[in-house]
Amino acid sequence: MQSYNHSMTRIRLRQPIFPILIAFMFGLQLMQPSRAWMIWLAAVTGIFVSAYLWARSLGGNLQLRRETRLGWVQVGGQIEERITLSNASLFPASWVQFEDQSTLPDFNASKSTSISAGFFEQWTLTATCKQRGSFYLGGAKILTGDPFGIFEVTIHASQRTSILVLPQTAILPDMLVAPSGSYGDGQPRRNALQQTIHASTVREYAYGDSTRMIHWPTTARTNKVFVRLMESAPEGDWWILLDLDQRNMLGQGWDSVEEQSVTLAASFADRGLRLRKSVGLISNSHELVWLPPQKGEGQRWEIMQALATAKPGNLELSTVLERTQSSLGKHHSLIVVTASTKLDWLKTLLPLSKRGIIPTVILLDAFTYGGKVSAENVAANLQLRGIKCHIIPRGMIELPKTPTQKNSHWKWHATPTGEIVPIRN
To answer: What is the mean pLDDT of residues 36-54?
Structure first.
């Protein structure tokens, strides 16, 4: 991915004494003609004009080129950019100050250098992305000028490249999601409503069993009617409800309720999509998120993109549940990721089971983040009502490890046409 500078150039006079001095000597020459005044006038004017032409030439011939190899990356991944600043002028740039305006945290390409006429300066930067979000690489202010310091040239390079840093995903081996064909403890239910289930064993026919469940091979072999005993292993859709109520956002940086909640939501979305389930996302972030359940990589990108830019909002979890319950459909698994220690949202959560929407609550323990109330009370109320609940204490999800490398995995290759392209070592 390459970008060239679309620039605006401004030349500023740094030493206003020069035009004043030229005007003063010119006046003296008019009033008292002298060869000495003429020599001084010619020398100062020559320096002034030369400095202007020098600065003007640099302003029109300093060229910036930025090349990046990625448009998106996950938290913990690396971004690499190569910057080339070339001087096509006939005059050398004795001093150049490059001020980078990229918004990606911990990425600073600013540099001070000098570039001879017809030469270029090139440097490569690598940064580890530690914060999710939408950022820009690019935008720069280039300062230079003539060697006499009379004029200053400011070049504003406006070209920018968008970089999306997606949330990290974590391995969650012990966090089971209650399937929508069962309630609470996930035990099998006879005559489960889902069709995507399988038979675990057979038993003798009992009054009230559906004739569709008769297992004919066993019935023929034993001369008794047997029916299939279905084990609930439904392929119901997953709804992930990410609670980003700003009143519950404790902690700072990665070690905060906000970042841990987003990571958990991303991890469950990744797990569900890998299991080939339809996964949807709801969030009371600053901009409300509503993504209906879908399958495939397209849905993964939509969810990760929404999570990358999600910020805390003002809407409470109970309000979100009230507003969305009628739109959740039937027979889905609802995964609620929250740090709320209130109990008012339970009143809305419990009736959802009547429509086959089975909740699983991922409860971040606010007390371990500096809150005043432990999650144990909320968890006890949930479990008392048969709702699966997993408590997540602070520090359970670790910061993504920063990849260490001595040399870049990429190098730059010049094609026969003169194009510079990145290739992997």
So the answer is: 90
Cα gap 81→133, rounded to integer Å: 18
Please state, in angstroms and as integers, the Cα–Cα distance from residue 346 to each residue in 56, 322, 330, following that order. Answer: 70, 11, 19
Contact 58, 77 (CB under 8 A): no
Does residue 162 sit in the same domain as residue 254?
A: no
Q: Are residues 8 and 115 in the same domain?
A: yes
**Total count of domains within the chain:** 3
Cα–Cα dist 395/176, whole Å:
20
Range of the domain at 91: 2-168+405-424
Confidence at residue 208, expressed as pLDDT on a 0 to 100 scale:
64
Q: Are residues 312 and 355 in the same domain?
A: yes
- Give pTM, 2 decimals: 0.72
**Nearest by Cα to 240 from 351, 320, 340:** 320
Per residue in 63-100, pLDDT tens? 999 988 777 888 888 888 999 999 999 999 999 999 99
* Tokens linked to 236: 């119901």
- Answer whether residue 183 is part of any domain: no
